[in-house]
Amino acid sequence: MLKITTATQSQLSSISKLANQIWWHTYISFLSKQQITFMLNDMYSLKSLQNQLANNHVFKIASFQKIYCGFASYSQIDDFGVYKIHKLYLHQKYQGLGLGKIFLTAIENELLNLGATSVQLNVNRENKAQYFYLKQGYQILKTVDIPYHNFMLNDFVMYKPELDY
User: What is the pTM of this model?
Assistant: First the structure.
């Protein structure tokens, strides 16, 4: 069974470690090594994760058979109940077991309880995760190219307009 808990400050180092394992596998086929390295350092260093936590990002950590296997984060992005899932990753060893759906549904249920009216997320246009989100009822809101330091993020902004659980 997948166990999902709210991550504490002391678990941020585990999230950083997981990100370094997951990102290389997920992104190496369509992002440069330089971009992956930069983004991991910029977004997943312990200091960066601590700053995100201090800026109202809620981190979740998932474990399967007592082993950390994934993480997520979200925050409210406006006063009208729109939340953004900033991160949702499951280690490749645990993909294809239905755990991603369980993880996403648990986060959506938590957001619903917080009063969310809609959920958004960004996914790289080359990332096969977009198909997972489409299957879960998300729609493409828009296509964006976001300047990010010396790189360009080529994303879909996806959303789930109604949480109906």
Answer: 0.95
List the domains of the chain with CATH numbers. Answer: 2-160 (3.40.630.30)
Give the model confidence (pLDDT) of 55-65 as tens digits. 999 999 999 99
**What distance in Å separates the CA atoms of residue 102 and residue 90, rounded to the nearest whole number?**
11
Nearest to 73 by CA among 43, 47, 96: 43
The 3-class SS string of the chain reads CEEEEECCHHHHHHHHHHHHHHHHHHHCCCCCHHHHHHHHHHHHCHHHHHHHHHCCCEEEEEEECCEEEEEEEEEECCCCCEEEEEEEEECHHHCCCCHHHHHHHHHHHHHHHCCCCEEEEEEECCCCHHHHHHHCCCEEEEEEEEEECCEEEEEEEEEECCCCC
Exposure string over 23-50, b if 16+ CB within 10 A, otherwise e: beebbeeebeeebbebbbeebbeeeebe
Cα–Cα distance measured from residue 46 to residue 66, given in angstroms and rounded to the nearest whole number: 22
Could you report the per-residue pLDDT of 50-91, keeping only the tens digit for each? 999 999 999 999 999 999 999 999 999 999 999 999 999 999
pLDDT at 162: 75
